[in-house]
Amino acid sequence: MRRPAPDGRRHAAVLSYGHEYHARLATPFAVLGIRTSGARLSEIVYLPTGAATLSPQNRLAETTCQQIERYLDDPQFRFELPFEFDGSAFRQRVWRAICEIPPGRPLTYGDIARQIGSAPRAVGGACGANRIPLVIPCHRVVASGGIGGFMHARAGAPIQIKQWLLQHEHV
């Protein structure tokens, strides 16, 4: 279900059901919708910058917001949040490899593919399926000839977010 925003644009259904988030944190590049499940972080969603914010609704959401703010202050900050690599064995291998990429030192889809014995396109698919971006920093995976895609997009707001994050990390 979509609903018109006050400015007449249409936004994804997640905005219609904002109560499902345990926090919504404004950042320079998006409002981050944060979901937790029990004692684990389960999802971070990039919402439009004009989306309403929401104070953390539980301790883990509060800790997640605090750590994101630390990352925004210091791009070298490493997240220490409880989560599970929730996906196929292949996606888990990709995400574990991505977690090892240090800030400011992006790797290509091909680099990750060689590390895990796969193909670059499959690595890109796993990046797009990442439900906890920033914590699993898929923005640090780029194409061999440019920035590549982000959130299953090759243009628009997702690429602008990826560019912002890479610039923040001094890439």
Oligomeric form: single chain
Task: Report the strand count.
Answer: 7
Order of helices and strands: EEHEEEHHEHHEH
What is the overall silhouette?
globular
Tell me the fraction of residues in β-strands, as a range.
15-25%
Can you give the helix content as a percent range?
25-40%
Return the structural class.
alpha+beta
Average pLDDT metric: 90
Largest sheet, strands/sense/barrel: 3 strands, antiparallel
The spatial strand order of the largest sheet comes to 3-4-5
Through-space gap between termini: 38 Å
Number of helices: 6
Q: Judging by the overall fold, what is the CATH architecture of the largest domain? A: Orthogonal Bundle
CATH topology of the largest domain: Arc Repressor Mutant, subunit A
- Rg, alpha carbons: 16 Å
Tell me the CATH superfamily of the largest domain.
Winged helix-like DNA-binding domain superfamily/Winged helix DNA-binding domain
CATH class of the largest domain: Mainly Alpha
Uncertain segments of ≥5 residues (pLDDT<50)? 1-18
Count up the domains: 2
